[in-house]
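Practice problem: Cytochrome c oxidase accessory protein CcoG
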Amino acid sequence: MEKIPVVQVHAPASTPGGRSANGKFHVRLTEGRFQNLRRLTTWPLIALFFGLVWVQVDGTPWLLFSFEQRRILLFGTALSWHDLPLLAGVMIAGACLLFFMAVAWGRVWCGFACPQSIWTWLFIRIEDLTEGRARQRAKHDRTGLSTALLLRRSAKHLLWALLALATAITFTGYFIPVREIMNSLLTLQMSPALWGWLLIMAGLTYANAGLVREKICLHACPYSRFQSVMFDADTRTVSYDTQRGEPRAHKRQQDGSVGDCVDCGVCVQVCPTGIDIRDGLQAACIDCGACIDACDTVMERLDRPRGLIRFASEHQLAKQPTRFMRPRLLGYGTAILLACGAVLYGFSATTELLVEIRRDRNALFIQLDEDTFCNTYRVKVESFREDSAPVKVSVRGNRDYILHGPDELNMAEHGSTWLPYRVCASGLDSPRSEISFQFESGSIRTEKASTFLAKPAKPS
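Answer key — structure tokens:
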């Protein structure tokens, strides 16, 4: 199948609007249906990101990836690290959904839900609030720094730093309880390692959303590199209708014909990656729809039909038959269903009782008398049940084994703690026997196999 070529074109420094003489461009904010749709998508995601980390149920975080406790608290369900493949399944399902959306509508994830894009728009909003609109910022770059501008830029960078620090604290709060982080921060008792981590995360956020911005989308994000492989001639992506727009107003033909594009450059001024969509599909385009809203506004003012720039496929622009469902879409849709089914099944069979057993390596066995031998073990039991029911411990084998150690564990006291146990037996006729530790907590039962060693029996 023929692939749509990806063209990498950068708008020239002479583009009118918010581009400075040094080539730096300032994004002009616009309004429209796609920008409203983007806000309806991004603001709930921002609220979830900053809000979920504070939600607790019975004093326990609702969502926490705890390295210290070696467990994942996921919306009221406790998972062990052995259940991490479930999260891998969720990521596989998400990747298939991303590919499905890419084949159907291009990089709409990048434009409407990607954290890099969301935080970039937040930083642009702060820049617009403190330093003025795009034309003003470009003018300030040309005229030089004044006292008033210095104060404005200082306020901008301060707000950027505060937002970056809040982002770093919130992100870290999904691995360390956020209340502990805030208490350590307010009492100045935070460990140097945590301080370093927060500063690194805040610095990366500040650089990515405030300074680097579009370069992340173009150079660091792998999706921009393989997007052309995902697209086909029926992929609806942000496109410029060349047949309708050309020739532009300043390129009037000899017969007087002219296209609808008046070459105002507004589509370039509002683009967060600084490209000219009229040059064709480009790797830097994130399909945010800003150029569509800007162009539609101009068309309405000129009393011309909207849609000069719109979500359209190559076949639609060429006025050829188009189809939505294709084999590739069906394949990704099937993969999504399979991955979701596997994840749902996995959540129904999660680990509720995790047991680890280690033999004492210093002494293979202890001989109490000529016929009685003992082995020493270390046992750790972790319960991932919602209740705190005690765990009963017993041992079984081909002989009568006696267990020395607590036969009932209170998870509130002994959870994640290695406990010493001794197992003894008499009348063994083999130097090596298989035994099984039995653990029972309510309706949950599990067992862990181990070995029992003894001195070889003397021949009769």
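Discussion: The radius of gyration is 32 Å. Students who identified this feature from the tokens alone can consider the problem solved.
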